[in-house]
Design goal:
By secondary structure, the protein is mostly beta strands. Helices cover 0% and strands 35% of the residues. It has strands at residues 11-21, 27-37, 44-46, 49-50, 56-58, 64-67, 74-75. The strands form two sheets. Strands 4-3-6-7 form a four-stranded antiparallel sheet, with no helix packed on it. The protein has a three-stranded antiparallel sheet with strand order 1-2-5, with no helix packed on it.
Length: 102
């Protein structure tokens, strides 16, 4: 990510194998993403709420993540996500990230 308000080591994503209980009572494991702010100057935001530095936050389906004062928003999706799950029109264009552009 390239933006004046984003530090070189701003944040980290960590994926953890976490146990969970199914509706039928059996147990299983799933991989869950976590975000940690590495004590950055301009912070990290989950759903427009600034998170505390040096603390892991679990990211849930459709959480919106921002770094510093960048206008870019990153939405958490899982493997089975579809455009209609997000309430987006089916003709919404996909914009690819261009390095150096905001």
């Amino acid at each position: 990510m390239h933006h004046p308000s984003i530090s070189k080591q701003h944040a980290a994503l960590q994926y953890r194998l976490m146990p969970y209980k199914r509706e039928n009572g059996s147990t299983g494991n799933r991989v869950s993403p976590y975000l940690i702010d590495l004590d950055s100057t301009n912070g990290c935001y989950i759903n427009n709420q600034r998170i505390d530095p040096q603390r892991y936050y679990e990211l849930k389906q459709q959480d919106m993540v921002k770094f510093g004062f960048s206008s870019r928003e990153y939405v958490v999706l899982h493997e089975g996500s579809k455009d209609d799950d997000l309430g987006l029109p089916t003709d919404t264009p996909v914009v690819k990230d261009e390095p150096g552009k905001e």
